[in-house]
From TrEMBL:
Residues 1-10 have a biased composition (Basic and acidic residues). It comes from the Eukaryota. It comes from Vigna angularis var. angularis. Its cofactor is Fe(2+). The keyword Cytoplasm does not apply. This is Nitrile-specifier protein 5.
Length: 360
């Protein structure tokens, strides 16, 4: 791929051209809605897995989960192996990878476009923020360094990453000089980075936000900006404009480092830190185990019934690795590991099976 840094070409992308772009958006919620149903399943694990950790990342290609990075001891990267979990056999293995293998890191993100996985940023063992973009070809089991330095987003960790069928999107995180609120896209076909317009001061720089693609928009949900946040913003990919939206319904309490999934017109939110530790990253704050869905048509939140007291429920946690997956013929959210309220790193895997039903 050719390393190209590309900014938006047209000055009409400026938010100043849209006087209402930063005003809260309200939508009538009286229309027919799709009710989301959810159920957790705890997956067995065979073979030698990645082990307990947090601040790691996963991406799913076909029926295989690829896991990379993370910590067992706070701020100390564990390894740089690419661990593979087969969703059909429930067996772990380690990829026999070649090429430009990324060094160990924490606070890293991963996303898949087709059969290629992309890994961006993170923090190394010296607590240095990173900005390399790596790709991993799951067919050839080969790593490649795509961009670094002045090409692409500045250095960061604990940012968020998501993807559609062509692009990888990166938002926010902890930068060298503070928390960030910038949005970037990497075009996997053309091999180009694009920096989108800034959301402005209405969307504070933040770490650990939710990021999802839904209905032609990139959604930024909550995050940590010196305190836990409970605001929602969206970026219209067609018009290149930001909007701060006003949500309704039973909205989640402010939180960060939670699991997020775009599922049709819904954004699924699970867990996260709702009260930070007074020891910072060295301690465990207060975590949530609740599950919510945001309808991006009506902008109404709903808390989902997910049998919170059952043995199959993952319980309160944050700093997890998560990704959309298909398991047992159902689409849903895969959650792996994370940090617990007792500050213990976890090594379990849960699958949230999702379904929708039209209701009046």
């Amino acid at each position: 791929m050719k390393n190209v840094y590309k900014r938006p070409e047209s000055p009409t992308h400026s938010l100043n051209k849209h006087s209402d772009s930063n005003l809260p958006l309200k939508v009538d919620s009286s229309n027919i809605m799709a009710a989301v149903h959810a159920s957790w399943i705890k997956l067995d694990q065979r073979g030698e897995g990645q082990g307990a950790r947090s601040s790691h990342a996963i991406a799913v290609v076909a029926q295989k989960v690829y896991a990379f990075g993370g910590e067992f001891v706070p701020r100390v990267p564990v390894d740089n192996n690419l661990h593979v979990f087969d969703l059909e056999t429930l067996t772990w293995s380690v990829a026999d990878a070649s090429g430009d293998i990324p060094p160990p890191r924490v606070g890293v993100t991963m996303a898949a476009v087709g059969e290629t996985i992309y890994v961006f940023g993170g923090r190394d063992g010296e607590h240095k923020e990173l900005n390399e973009l790596y790709s991993f070809d799951t067919r050839a089991n080969k790593w490649a360094l795509i961009s670094r330095g002045d090409i692409g987003p500045p250095n960061r960790s604990y940012h968020s990453m998501t993807a559609d069928d062509r692009h990888v999107y990166v938002f926010g995180g902890c930068g060298v000089h503070g928390r960030l609120n910038d949005l970037w896209a990497f075009d996997a076909v053309e091999g180009k980075w694009v920096e989108f317009p800034s959301p402005g001061e209405s969307c504070k720089g933040r770490g650990g936000p939710g990021l999802a693609v839904a209905q032609g928009k990139i959604w930024v949900v909550y995050g940590f900006s010196g305190e836990e946040m409970d605001d929602v913003h969206c970026f219209n990919l067609a018009h290149k404009t930001w909007t701060q939206v006003e949500t309704s319904g039973l909205k989640p309490t402010a939180r960060s480092v939670f699991c997020t999934l775009g599922n049709g017109k819904h954004i699924i939110v699970y867990g996260g830190e709702i009260d930070p530790s007074d020891q910072g990253h060295l301690g465990a704050g207060q975590f949530s185990g609740e599950l919510y869905a945001l309808d991006t048509d009506t902008l109404a939140w709903k808390r989902l019934e997910d049998k919170a007291n059952s043995d199959n429920h993952p319980g309160p946690r944050g700093w997890c690795a998560f990704a959309g997956a298909r398991c047992g013929g159902r689409q849903g959210l895969l959650v792996y590991g994370g940090n617990s309220p007792s500050n213990d790193r976890l090594d379990d895997i849960f699958f949230l099976a999702l379904s929708q039903e039209r209701v009046n």
